[in-house]
Structure formats: structure tokens, C-alpha cells
Amino acid sequence: MNAGQALDVVEKILLKRQLTALEQLILTQSWHGLGYEAMAQNSGYNSSYFKEVGSNLWHCLSQEAGIKVTKKNLQLILKQYSLDERIYVNTVENTQLPQFIDTRVIADDNFPISSRETEIKYPGSPLAYNSPFYINRPPVERLALAEIHQPGCILRIKAPKRMGKSSLLNQLVGYAKASQYKTVYIDFQEADNTIFTSLDKFLRWFASNVTRQLHLIPKLDDYWDDDIGSKVSCKMYFEEHLLEQINSPVVLIFNEVNQIFEHSNIVKDFFPMLRFWHEMAQQVETWQKLRLVLAHSTENYIQFKVNQSPFNVGETIELPHFTTEQIQELAQRYGLGDKPIHFIAPLQAMLGGHPYLITLALYYLRSRKITLEELLKTAATPTGIYSQHLRELLSLLIAEPQLLSAMQQIVMAPGKIDLDAIVAYKLESMGLVQLDGNQACTSCQLYQLYFCQQLEKKVCVPL
Fold it and tell me: What is the per-residue pLDDT for 82?
């Protein structure tokens, strides 16, 4: 019996359910005699959490097997099921890896990486929890996982568009479910415009959405009271109806929070309300069950009153660009060779480590729709693969004359230039520049070339 066959025994005979990604990892690596410290190495998890999930797994197996199951006797007990011929042992060619764990941790013939067989889709959509194309960016995942373990936490994830925020949220959802947490996913892009016409309508939509995702019976009218106002009504509804019925932590994820920035009637009350809930967790045990995760695109810059919003509390994560090693890892998963170093250097020189730009390049190279030479030659032109992305950025600049003027100065300058602090911050939030204090330069050669062409008819200084 190998590790994959052991997994079949556990899922099809003993527990009669599919193991979570993390449970699969623990089972297969325990089969090979690895300890929790070894499993945790380079994985994004800490060893104590591996031990916690592992202990629960052994407990469940012990109950079903009628005998205490541990890492030490795991092989002996599971092999007995195979010897008794009580199951038909399948191969594990289609077994999916827990891709939130770095696949380099698992490299044996009994648990093959599935990315080689996975259909490669056009980049742009969020990656699923078990996607072989999700690349960890330490310490991002470790910090995020650690934070949602904190009672009453607020975790803030911010980055320009297409930096991987939604993909990271999918990893958190999968991780939370593997931890037996309840999850609620609110994407403000789904809300009708009429929802934002009043705070009362917005909070009722929000509370109803959460209720249904928790599979509870909506009872908004029992708690909503015009005399005490929408915010207090919403608080009582969560505290006395929703959280009271839930015995596990609830990870409440808000994606595209920036969608409500333009609705001042909502912003001025909703974010202070979330901040208050976070503060309540320091005093009231019920509120400790709630773990808030807010993700927003930084292009939609807004100045909150710092003492009234949740954006100055909790843990903040800013998504970084890919490193050279991470680009190489992704290229390998795209099937571009074991050591595709020859094209990584020119790609990184042109694109920096922008996740979407890099992934799109790898997709086209993998599908052989374009050569590396053609890709680089046309990258900053209207016929290149990045034309739509570049036009979107140009449109944002045109709508902000101050930013347009600043970007024009940057692409003309032979080196870094000084900028107004707010202007510098906004351009960085769009992903267009790198900052050293208030000094700025373009974040990659692609932007330098494109905006040279678009913003200045004179000869500009290349990177």
C-alpha cells in the first residue's frame, strides 16, 4: 500500500468523506514518517497548527476504526483494510494537491503534482483554493492564516487590481473551512445599485446575505427597530441571533470593499460599525467568534478619518510582486521546463514581478501563441498582450490631471524624482511607481515604455 492508496482507505471506508487539503497533506506525509515540523517547512502554516489538525484527524480515525490511531501505527492499521480486501484500491493520478501548501514540500511518486494534467485557463479570474497555479508569497499567507486565528480580528488586504487579492481570499476560505470555521464571502460587486441608496437598506442586505450563507433562518424584522437605528439593530441581530447560534469562529470576508468608497452615506457609518465590533471582541466573548477580512483595490484611493474607520486597526497585508524564484516556480507549473531561467530574466526586466503580467506572459508562452521575442517587442504597443491593461491605467490617469502630469514628469526624468506625498501615494497605489521616500520611478519597464509613448511626444529616457 502506498500513500495514495492509504488516502483511499481513509476517505472511502473509514471517514466516508473527502479529506480537506491540509488533512490530505498530513495523512500522506505521516505515511512517509514526516513530523509536523518537516510538514510545516515552507508551507505557510506553523507546526502547532499542523499538530492541531493532525490530532483531530487521528481522533476521527480512532472513532471509526474502533482502535486508537496515531502517526506511529497508521501504516499498520490502514494496511489491514487492504489485506482484508474490503476496498478496491484506486490509483491517485487525479489526486489534487493542497495547493495552499508549497508543492515543493510534496514530491514523491505516490502523490504526484496535478498541475501537469490541469487544463491551463486564460489568466484573469481568481484562482481556486486547490489551484496548482497559486504561488505562495511568504510571509503573506503565514500572516493571513495567523490573523484569522485571532478572536475578533480585522485583517486588511490591499493591493492594486490583478495582484491576487481574490485568489488569496479563496485560499483563506479553503483554509478556514479546513479548520472547521464557518465562512461568509461578501463581494460588493454583486450588490445592486439600489442597495447603496440608504444605510438601512444596505445593512439589511448585508445581514440577510450573511444569514443565508450561514444557512440560518432570516429574522431581520424581529430585531430591526427604527427607534434605535440601523447600526444598533444590525449589531443586536448579529449578537443575539447569528453569533449566538454558531459554535465555531466565523470568517466574514469582504471583497472589493472599494466598491462602497464612493457612497459616502454608507462609508461614514459602515466602517466605524465594523471597528466597533472589533473593539467589542475585547470585552464580549460572543464577538470573539467573528473574524473580519477586508480586501480592497488601492486604485480607489479615499481619505478616511483615521479615528473612525477600521483601516487603522488589525493586521494589514500589502501583496508584493513575485520574486525571481516564485516566477520560476510558476513557470515550472506551466510546464515550461524544470529550470526555465533563460526567459525569466528578460520577462522580469520588462514586467517586474507583477503577478498578472507575469502569468499572462507564461500563458502565451506555454500555448505557443507568441514567441518571447515577439512578446517583449510588442508588450508596450496597442497590439501587445497587455494593451487592455495599459489602456485601463491610462484612463485612470486621464481622469486625474494631477496624476497624469506627475506620471509625465516621471517617464521623462533620467532618474527618481521628488513628488508630493499624496500624489506619490496615489501613483504607488495604482502600481505605476516604486517609491523611495517621496522619490518615484516607474515600477517596471513596460510602464516606462508605454507612458513615454502616450504622455510625451519628445524622446524619453528608458529604464
Answer: 54
Mean pLDDT, rounded, for 408-420: 93
Q: If 0-12 CB within 10 Å is exposed, 13-18 middle and 19+ buried, where does residue 85 land?
A: exposed
- Bridge partners for 294 per DSSP: 156, 254
Q: What is the reported pLDDT for 154?
A: 95
Contact 418, 424 (CB under 8 A): no
**Up-side HSE of residue 150: CA atoms within 13 Å toward CB?**
16
CATH of the domain at 416: 1.10.10
Is residue 329 domain-shared with residue 314, that is, in the same domain?
A: no
* Packing angle of the helix pair 401-412, 387-398 (nearest 10 deg): 120
Q: Is the separation of the CB atoms in 351 and 446 below 8 Å?
A: yes
* Residue 69 DSSP code: -
The reported pTM is 0.73
Asked if residue 450 and residue 365 are part of one domain, the reply reads: no
Give the tens place of pLDDT for each residue, 383-399: 999 999 999 999 999 99
CA-CA-CA-CA torsion sign (112, 117, 120, 126): negative
Full domain range(s) for residue 414: 388-455
